[in-house]
């Protein structure tokens, strides 16, 4: 809006109250005059004093900011030192990493065309992908102690070649750890994680993502265990014939665990594989927690109360997880933490 003609200005701006009305300056103040033509005049010594005050204030402000900045930087460095000390003593375990699928997508599992030791932020197509955040330099910089590599299979492979694709993804994970054995160590036990961490290598484990990879066969599940897989995510983004997923528009049965799904959970318990409930429906979560005799995990989920995504875990399930002795491995994906 335009300033009305004759309006007095302060610092180049007309003075208004919060309702948008002009506030007349009181007569006798430095912003008022007896006529529109009268000019404000200040004596030289007043100008000099004002300049000293302003310059002094700026100097003190800068000094304060610098001292505060130094203090904040010192606190940050102390915090980093504490984190590094803890991660040197206790392995940091990442529950889910999709790098194996990127290897399949970008180089068709041909590891001769993939250099894991390079900074992939500088190499196409890795650098251009929103889903590519992993290479050895970054794993080391983040002090990752153990990594669950995901043997992921797209839901479209259900009832088709899901078992074959899962086997191929398990294969590429094991070959990757063999090729980079100076930095990675394939393990299948908690003791193996501790051993790898002590030797300065990143413990590498396999998680199969999506129960459709079983082809509804407990025999396939046992084979996955024999090949080194140590968790099974019961669903991905589509229901299996025996477990409901988190996607609300999938109306196919079941919503929770069917009878075969309960058998899968019991067999996972018997084999010593973790039951992973990320991607499952709330009812599947509840059913699995009621059936499982061992602690469960959510390999990459967050809190529903903070972000109401159906990929997250509601409070009443979190309470069951606590009673079960399980854990939720927080997912830092933007859409799961800042709805």
UniProtKB/TrEMBL annotation:
Membrane-spanning residues: 45-66
Gene Ontology MF, one: metallodipeptidase activity
Listed EC numbers: 3.4.13.19
Main subcellular location: membrane
GO cellular component, one term: side of membrane
Keyword Nucleus applies: no
Membrane topology annotation: Lipid-anchor; GPI-anchor
Keyword Transmembrane: yes
Subcellular location: Membrane
Cofactor: Zn(2+)
Keyword terms, alphabetized: Dipeptidase, Disulfide bond, Glycoprotein, GPI-anchor, Hydrolase, Lipoprotein, Membrane, Metal-binding, Metalloprotease, Protease, Transmembrane, Transmembrane helix, Zinc
Catalytic activity: an L-aminoacyl-L-amino acid + H2O = 2 an L-alpha-amino acid
One Pfam match: Peptidase_M19
Top EC group: hydrolase
InterPro entries xref list: Metal_Hydrolase, Pept_M19
Entry's Gene Ontology BP terms: proteolysis
Similarity section: Belongs to the metallo-dependent hydrolases superfamily. Peptidase M19 family.
Description of how the protein assembles with itself and partners: Homodimer; disulfide-linked.
Name this protein carries in UniProt: Dipeptidase
Gene: DPEP1_4
